[in-house]
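One chain shown below:
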Amino acid sequence: MFLFIPPSFDILFLMEKLEILFPDDAEIIRHCTLAEKLFGTDTDPDQAQPTLNNVKRLIAVDPYTYIYTENKLETMGWSVVLPTTKENMDSFFAEKITEKELFDIGTTKPYSFEVLYLTAAVTLPEFQNKGIASYLMKSQIHYFTKKYGTKDFFAYILTDEGLGLLKKIERELEITIHYIRN
């Protein structure tokens, strides 16, 4: 497991019991169905669509772009990141490209690991406020920083909870995450 700046005792206890998992097709389809309901992606043509094909494209970049954890064979939460370039991050912030276009660029060779788009962290309602989303995303940040030297991070924040998660990760990892808010 990865070592981070110590969070609260409860989170340390939980982290010892969490296992980072990589989804099979059936698990991906379940996550995609839930994500469509949670984020309303089917009505937004600018968002990358949660489909089995898209997740497989993402995982082809690096399996650690899409991770999840479960408890007694029940999904607790998952996290998605997309490696890309600083130029693509700047274009996204300037609204020159959409999230869908960012995804299409990021999942096309040659891949770049210059910056990491913190795409989504989802925790099912019955497992919220236990540090699961934070743990998963921090694991991904740690992995990409160590493996590829990624040092810049960005996000598109949709909710107050998402902003809280981002701020928590910044504090605990002592990093800056660039973001825009919906």
In short: The radius of gyration is 15 Å. The beta strands are 66-71, 74-84, 115-123, 152-157, 177-181. The first strand starts at residue 66 and ends at 71. The mean pLDDT is 87.
